[in-house]
Amino acid sequence: MTTFLAQLLNGLQYGLLLFLIGSGLTLIFGVMGVINLAHGSLFMIGAYLAYVVAGYTGTFWLALPAAIAGGLLFGTFLEAALFRRFRDREHLDQVLLTFALILIFEEARSILIDNQFHSVAVPALLDFSVPIVGGFAYSAYRLAVLAVCLAVAALMLLFVERTNIGASIRAAAENPEMVGLLGVDARRIHMLVFAAGTALAMLAGALAAPLQSVYPGMGDGFLILSFIVVVIGGLGSIGGAFWAALLVGMVDTLGKAYVPQLAGIAVCGMMALVLLVRPAGLFARG
User: Fold this and answer.
1) What is the 3-state secondary structure (H, E, C) of the chain?
2) CB count, 10 Å around CB of 5?
3) 138 DSSP β-pair partners
4) C-alpha of 183 from chain center
5) Residue 39: its pLDDT value, please?
6) N or C: which end of the chain has fewer CB within 10 A?
7) For 205-232, what is the mean pLDDT?
């Protein structure tokens, strides 16, 4: 029972990390129509940034604001310098651009750091276990990651659903042509969405750094699962990305724990079923 409870909490935490990555991906894809295969590399950059910042400053806590600020700046630069020019191009051109970015990011990582596996220590403040029930205790840092991800999810939902800018983002995801007719500056919306998506992916990488090794290509698996989250949740739907990420995180974690041979098949099978029954996604509007 304690093992099952631990796996449930691990699945919840994994799903929430997937949400941070997938929510940015679904907005970028839904609003801009850009297939960003380099989104997983942004997760990796966030993890390496946490490793570097924690190593140089001696504290992990500075890595989180560094990941957010760095993601906003880097995302703004990428959108203005590259993605804006490819937004109206064919999807093949976008795929080639983002694949080239993956190669550039990996080569830059190799030159600036190395190709070794690294670890980031859990912050001393949270390096203990919290009693849950009976003799079962769970990592305080993992619980903190849960809390941070839930807080970010709540803020995102409030921003997208309750603000004028959020309404413009929703409109751009559902009907991009109408946004221009209403006089909304689409370029600002695209820049904001891409910068926010980049920041979320890098924040997820920084949060995940103490939970696993920091290594080359660590974002590849997250990218694949994030695309599955987008398909299941529906393009441009933050709420859909949230519930789909939890579903995928739970199925993947429990599958690997109890039936590892079928875990990948179960996740991909869910996506295939959704495509057959509701191609727009389970939580897509309309």
Assistant:
1) CHHHHHHHHHHHHHHHHHHHHHHHHHHHHHHHCCCCCCHHHHHHHHHHHHHHHHHHHCCCCCHHHHHHHHHHHHHHHHHHHHHHHHCCCCHHHHHHHHHHHHHHHHHHHHHHCCCCCECCCCCHHHCCEEEEECCEEEEHHHHHHHHHHHHHHHHHHHHHHHCHHHHHHHHHHHCHHHHHHCCCCHHHHHHHHHHHHHHHHHHHHHHHHHHCCECCCCCHHHHHHHHHHHHHHCCCCHHHHHHHHHHHHHHHHHHHHHCCCCHHHHHHHHHHHHHHHCCCCCCCCC
2) 14
3) 130
4) 31
5) 92
6) C
7) 92
User: What mean pLDDT comes out for the span 91-98?
Assistant: 88
Helix axes 220-233, 238-258, angle to 10 degrees: 130
Q: How many residues are listed for the chain in this entry?
A: 286
Question: Which residue has 């619980």 as its token pair?
Answer: 143
Q: CA-CA distances (angstroms) from residue 32 to 8, 28, 229, 276? A: 35, 5, 18, 25
User: Domains plus CATH for the chain?
Assistant: 2-277 (1.10.3470)
Average pLDDT of span 182-201: 85
Looking at residue 39, its amino acid is H
Question: Alpha-carbon distance 218 to 21, whole Å?
Answer: 13
Using the structure block, give the residue that is written with the tokens 């495509």. Answer: 275
Q: Give mean pLDDT, residues 209-231.
A: 91
Total-model pTM? 0.92
Which structure tokens are listed for 194?
Answer: 């891409």
